[in-house]
Amino acid sequence: MVDNGDLQKWFCNEVLPLESALTAFIRRNWREVNDVIDIRQEVYERALVGAQGGLPHHTSGYLYTIARNHIANRARRAKIVSFDILADLDAELPACAFEPEPALIARDELRQALRGLEQLPPRCREVVQLRKLEGLSTREVAERMGIGIDTVEKQLAMGIRALTDFMLGGSGKIERRNRIGLRRKREVQ
After folding, report:
1. What are the sequence ranges of the domains in the chain?
2. CATH topology of domain 102-186
3. Taking residues 121-135, what's their average pLDDT?
4. CA 20 from centroid of its chain's CA atoms
């Protein structure tokens, strides 16, 4: 369940800026001009009720889908269904309404992060896993692995830099400094 404050922020920051585009969409797809404002308010109500279970990742697609379905249902109830109206509804949705499923994108990013994690040296990988995946504190990681807190912090920093590089399309190499302070890159094995 979404907190009312978060729901209000989402509505004000992401839904209301779409009001003019949504109104134009409804106007293009509903013949009765006097009903446009009522339909928009009903779409807002349905959006708020639906978002109580979890805020959508793509607000515009969510809102236009609700509007499209609501107009289609309203047309069926009014028994003025025109095949032209229903066909135009699909054609009129903006391209952003059909963005790739956020869960699929997130799953691909997770797979890539796991591939990058597998390439880290064993101790570095264990530190990153314990700190970032299991949520242990730096002190808890140090105690569990029998290493110093400074070592945990250094391994974590190197691991995160390497993972970030890998996620951005780089090689994921760990950069280490040699004894005289010069940087050298070591390929992650």
Report:
1. 4-98, 102-186
2. Arc Repressor Mutant, subunit A (1.10.10)
3. 89
4. 25
